[in-house]
Amino acid sequence: MRARIAWALAGATLVMTIVDISVTAAYRPLLSEEAIAEHGFPFVNGAVLGSAVLGAVIISRDQRHVIGWLLNLIGTIGAFSLMLEAYSIWMVSGGPGSASMAGVLGLIGSLVGGQFAIGGLALLFLLAPDGRLLSPRWRYIAAAVVIGELCCMVALLWGDPTEFRIQSAEAGPVRGIVFTIGFALISVGMIGAVVSMLVRLRRSQGEERQQVRL
Questions:
Q1: Which of 64, 73, 88, 141 is the least crowded, having the fewest Cβ atoms under 10 Å away?
Q2: Is 3 a residue whose pLDDT tops 90?
Q3: pTM for the complete prediction?
């Protein structure tokens, strides 16, 4: 049952990726500088799809595998964010839909956007390969990631959601400080997670060492 859910999420990721590409192509050339530099096409699209599929493959072998579920969810939520971002920009650029709806969809997409994926990867690095922290003290790094994500969410929700614009969102002084704190904590978490993996690699042996190296 869990394997079917994982593959369903991977299938949904494929559908959302196709929708994202189709919507993006409706208002800008796919190979334009804006599509590649701002929206990440095709690299981010390939990354989220690959993440979801890889997670589903792992879950098919071990339905309780934490790393598999993290990969699966990072990919699915990432594709969801990209799709909403593309549709929001399309509506602002003259596509079907109201300006207020563009703001709401853009805000939702941003809430689960890049900072969410980076935080998810940090947790993945902390828990790989067996789904457990290297030692209890590393929970502070995980907590930094979670608090950072919450700070970013608070900053994004600070204001009228119907007025939110992805390409021109203005952060006031207080909102900007909260954003800065959030991203700083997520960055600390990512650096700490990489250090955790290096320490784990140094201590591991045999099959576990091969998994961490991969």
A1: 64
A2: yes
A3: 0.88
Query: Which amino acid, residue 165?
Result: R
Task: For 68-126, write each residue's pLDDT tens digit.
Answer: 999 999 999 999 999 999 999 898 888 888 889 988 999 999 999 888 999 999 999 99
**CA gap 129, 78 in Å, rounded:** 22
Q: Locate 207 and state its tokens.
A: 């099959």
Residue linked to tokens 């390409």:
167
Give the 3-state secondary structure percentages of the chain, helix then strand then coil, rounded to 5. Answer: 80, 0, 20
CA distance 205 to 203: 7
Q: Which tokens is 29 given?
A: 């050339």
Integer Cα distance of 49 and 14 in angstroms: 6
DSSP class of residue 51 equals H
φ, ψ for residue 96, nearest 5 deg: -65, 135
